[in-house]
Amino acid sequence: MNEPLIPLPRERASREPGLFERMGGRPVVERIVREFYDRVEADEELRRLFPEEMTAGREKQALFLEQWLGGEPRYSEQYGHPRLRARHFPFVIDERAAGLWLRHMGEAFRAAGVPEREMQEVFAGLGPLAKHMVNASEDVPREPLKETFLR
Ligand code: HEM
To answer: In whole angstroms, what separates CA 142 from the centre of its chain?
Structure first.
């Protein structure tokens, strides 16, 4: 009798917030990127792989992470498809560098206060992604990709 004519949007009402929101959104991602780059700066071995000037890289990393975690796709709006593996070809990345990258990123997420459950979700994806970036023993073109701006 009291059944509503229009069914309640149950999926919407009970929808869990996405990973990006649960982690605290943009301010937390920005904090993670600051923490990550502080650690890269302090790591002689990894720092050698990065360009001297890292301002643009920081900005791109923040845009990309937000998009990858389910926030707004601002990275792709500005730079097109991430093509992450190809974009990393100019940097000779071995297993050890991938391990250091992951360790610093893990510490950066912790320092930014990301809870354990969300950490596990994130690193289940970032672990394999970092391994996928390893290219040291491959014959890949080492010259930087031309930027592909969409607008
Ligand atoms: C495995 C070890 C990795 C190393 C050593 C590494 C190193 C680098 C370096 C040197 C740059 C250039 C920074 C700049 O131009 O200032 C870069 C860019 C970038 N990296 Fe990585 N990276 C690694 C893994 C990853 C992973 C797993 C991701 C994905 C989460 C990632 C995402 C990015 C992004 C989005 C950029 C900016 C790309 C662009 O638009 O130019 N990297 N990385």
So the answer is: 22
